[in-house]
Amino acid sequence: MPNLSFLNLSYNDMKHATTEKLTETENLRSLVLNCTYVPWSIVCSFLDAMPKLQELHLSLNDYSFVDLPSNKQYKNLKQLYICGNPLSSWNDLIVIGKTFPNLESLIMANTHIASIPEPSLWEHIFPNLQTINFNYMLLNDWKDIDRLNHFKKLEDIRLQGIPVLDALSELERRQHLIAYLPSVIRLNGSAILQKEREDAERAFIRFFLSEDERPKRFYELEAIHGKLDPLVDVDLSPKKTAQVFVHFCEEQSTLTVNLQQSVQELKATLSDKFGLRPAKMRLFYIDQDMKDVCGPDELRYNNRKLYSYQIRDGDEFLVDSK
């Protein structure tokens, strides 16, 4: 099959696989070996036989370490998925970075890694990494989060279910992560708009105003935003509801929306109201103060919470069909 570009061998037991009949496959771009328990030696044989491979899936293989040769590099690989393995050492990432120097996306959720060492040990081996998923790692120190900035091209990150976030509210978790990661433009699947970043950084400064110990990032942000006064006697929790206007075709109605819900949940509510399936719906938000300048803003990210758009009473939504 010389034109084969995608091969999925998941859930085939490959613990005792051999490469006797493995021939070079020039055009293969994606290889999926999830839950196969394939040995690293066989993974290397696949890589040798697939010189144009760009995407490799190795999740749920019970790997406790990464065993790749130190004398080989596979420069075409751009995406690696290696979730749900009991990896516990950052050295495994160093091995990955050295073996795949042009890696752009590393999806490594649900591992046992609990700390990130000094960036000088590893930052130079990830020159092109733009996207990472470290959901449910065991990171428990904000210094580890700060060290993620040493992925020089990082712009898209997922960081959910990590212990360092446990003591914070949902809103504070997002604000702290945004404040610590100035180059990231997408967090947990949602774009970070400029206004949200500024609000998050200011909230981060105020969060530590009453603390005796303040992180280095506090002073960096204070240099940008200036010294801020605490918001005395002000409830900093996000507003829970807003009274908005909804337009669909020639119909206009008033709706009280729960700002804690996601865009997808709002679409479901509007689907019941207007009889338009969410999959066929386009939803636009109109800021009453900015509509003459910016016009409608399409809500493209279904998992994003409504409060992150700073929705207020009197704002509008426009429902359209695809």
From TrEMBL:
Alphabetical keyword list:
Leucine-rich repeat, Repeat
Q: Which InterPro entries match?
A: LRR_dom_sf, SDS22/Internalin_LRR, TBCEL_Ubl, Ubiquitin-like_dom, Ubiquitin-like_domsf
Source species, domain of life: Eukaryota
Pfam name, any one = Ubiquitin_2
Segments forming domain Ubiquitin-like? 234-322
Q: Entry's PROSITE patterns?
A: UBIQUITIN_2 (PS50053)
What this protein is called in its record is: Tubulin-specific chaperone cofactor E-like protein
Native source species: Trichonephila inaurata madagascariensis
